[in-house]
Amino acid sequence: MKKSIIYLSLFLSAAGFTGCKKWLDVGPENVVLQEDALKTPEDLQKLLISCYDVVGNTMDGRVQNIAELLTDNMARPLNNLELTSVYDREVNFFNTTTNNVYTDIYRAIFRCNSLLESVDLIDGLSSSDRIRIESEARFIRALCHYWTLKIWAQPWGYTSDNSHLGIIIRDNAAATPLARSTVSESYAFIIADLEFAFANLPASNGAYANRYAAAAMLSQVLFQKNDYNGAVTYANEVINSGLYTLEPTLDVFHAMTPESQATANPEAIFSIVSTNTSTIVDTRNEGFRDNYFPGSTGAQLSYSQDLFTIFSQSGVDGRKTAWIDEASGQYQSLKFGSNAAASFFFSIPLIRLSHIKLIRAEAIAEAGGDLATAIEDINDIRDRAFGVGIFDVPSTATANDVILAAREEFRKETISEGLRIDQIRRLGAKGLNITVRNAPWNCPGMAIQFPNGEFSGSLFIGNPEGGCN
User: Fold this and answer.
1) What is the mean pLDDT of each run of 10 residues along the chain (469 residues)?
2) pLDDT score for 36
3) Which of 340, 331, 325 is nearest to 255 (CA)?
């Protein structure tokens, strides 16, 4: 007997994702799925697209901004008090900005779980579509849990056995109050989902997640665990696939001109897709666009003096002039274009080849691997930034030289993308003396507070608040 399936107000918008044309003919809809509403393969695909839809609304810069504000890359926000509380490491459970992001992340997880509980109940679904849909849902679920883990919990290595509190793991479509799992358990769950996705996703899947997106995520996640050999293995899968090449210019988001926004980004492994066609007009970058583009008094989000100095230390770094503008007493971002009118339909490459090359470079050096490959990875990034051969890592570089160079380039290459916090926490947990704006990397407040609603469960324990300044 078919299991009853009840969903409330699933707003299914296919408009934000292209590449699977047969499914996108449906167009944007406001659909309420009620009991036994999922009956056909098309219904199931709509639900999958709605999972991507919520991810697109959340990772349009909103979650990245929260992660970035915890780091030394950012200056104090202009006048947004809730973003300022993130910057000051004083988030409480009434912060609507962080709470809304958290809620949307778990909304995507809920929809993925609903899909996973339904996939075997649909008649007429081919075996290939069944495994693809399940794999995409598990990829999205892992992606969402991982971003939650790295913002709302202290990192891998914070305790010797990683028994410290992580996040709530939700593996079924229920809103039951739950306790937080440990960080060890959280990582195991995320990795299991990604390994399933890598094993079963197709190599090509349009604008949706493919097996290389799963491999890239696995490389990132294993790197955070200091599993360097594992990180290299999955980075090799991506790099050796031959499907991705570095964007030859510094317009790495394809955001700086309307012409670049209309072209495919060669280094994007998984993107949040904005679309501007005669039939679909949909932008998925509001979190970046609304906060980084300057108004009459300046930009809400701008870069720190510390970050600007890093760009100024090593020769003529083209990223300094291409990505940063000194204006209105701020170091304003140009990475997403110079103004909102011209930069409206850029997509967000959530995972880029640059990320994976720099992770592989550091992981190889940490694991005692082939430094020639690691050096080549770093120099690929530096050649784009400085000009070919101008600031290359020499072939005689030691493993420690390579590690330091990879870390420097990762920080610079990923500004605004929410990835600097990964580096800070990983290195702090490894025992390095890491401070963020004069506060320890692991002080209370660096892991932000959960929404008030989570405290309804008697077993739930929140994060300590404040104590960093």
Assistant:
1) 34 33 32 58 94 96 98 97 97 95 97 95 94 98 98 97 98 93 98 98 96 98 98 98 98 95 96 89 92 92 97 88 95 93 92 98 98 98 96 97 98 98 97 96 95 91 87
2) 53
3) 340
Sign for the CA dihedral angle at 189, 159, 83, 335 comes to: negative
Helix (H, G, I), strand (E, B) or coil at 141: helix
Distance (Å, whole) CA 293 – CA 288: 8
Q: CA 140 → CA 49, 158, 282, distances in Å?
A: 11, 26, 20
Structure tokens at 192: 């299991």
What is the pTM (predicted TM-score) of this model? 0.92
CA angle 164, 436, 151 (to 5 degrees): 40
Question: The domain 14-275+346-430 is classified under which CATH number: 3.40.50.2300, 3.40.50.300, 1.25.40.390, 3.90.228.20?
Answer: 1.25.40.390
Determine the 3-state secondary structure of 150 from DSSP.
helix
Q: Among candidates 148, 146, 147, 125, which has minimal Cα distance to 47?
A: 125
Q: Residue with structure tokens 């899909």?
A: 115
Q: Supply the pLDDT for residue 211.
A: 98
d(CA 467, CA 89): 8
pLDDT of residue 24: 31
Q: Do the strands 330-333 and 281-282 form a parallel or antiparallel pair, or are they unpaired?
A: unpaired
Tokens of 68: 């970035």
Domain layout of the chain by residue ranges:
14-275+346-430
User: CA 28, CA 297: separation in Å to the nearest integer?
Assistant: 37
In this structure, are residues 414 and 396 in contact, taking their beta carbons and an 8 Å threshold?
no
Radius of gyration for the alpha carbons in the chain, expressed in angstroms and rounded: 21
